[in-house]
Design goal:
Blueprint lengths: L1 H17 L14 H13 L3 H6 L3 H6 L2 H8 L7 E16 L6 E14 L6 E13 L2 E3 L4 H8 L7
């Protein structure tokens, strides 16, 4: 049971890392926020961290260089076989973004992930909210406040 709890916590952390982006005013991105966030979550759950990093919020890319980010994220245990990733709902929400003051306008995306874990005999379902923010007509995701703090200190959140 302890291993299942650790796995579920790890899967939740991986989903949190998949997560959010930052804002500008103006024209909407061509792709809706829901499909964008689903693609980021799928990249991260497939351990395709280099591709996910490419759409990370640029100021966060400067804090978490690609080599450091990919190497660190690769330390997270495999969540199991991805069965599905689905956007359930999208809505506007203002949140604090690491490295910025105040609240930032985002498009919140509630996502449901289902994985087949080798640790349990049933599919594991996790629902989590991520935030997409437009930057130059494209969605970008952001590091969590905790992840940003670790990378800024030159440390890996998962080491």
């Amino acid at each position: 049971m302890f291993r299942v709890s650790i796995w579920i916590a790890t899967a939740a952390a991986a989903l949190a890392a998949a997560g959010t982006a930052t804002a500008d005013r103006g024209v909407r991105p061509a792709e809706p926020a829901g499909p964008y966030m689903v693609s980021v979550v799928k990249q991260k759950l497939s351990s395709d961290y280099a591709t996910a990093w490419k759409t990370l919020y640029p100021p966060h890319q400067r804090v978490a260089a690609q080599d450091a980010y990919v190497g660190c994220e690769s330390l997270t245990p495999d969540a199991g076989t991805m069965l599905s990733v689905r956007a359930l709902r999208t809505y506007n929400e203002r949140i604090p973004v690491a490295g910025k003051g105040g609240l930032t306008k985002t498009r919140a995306v509630d996502v449901r992930v289902t994985v087949d874990s080798p640790l349990v005999s049933f599919p594991v379902v996790i629902e989590q909210t991520f935030h997409a923010i437009k930057v130059t007509r494209r969605w970008r995701w952001i590091l969590s406040l905790d992840q940003y703090g670790y990378y800024r200190a030159g440390e890996c959140p998962y080491a």
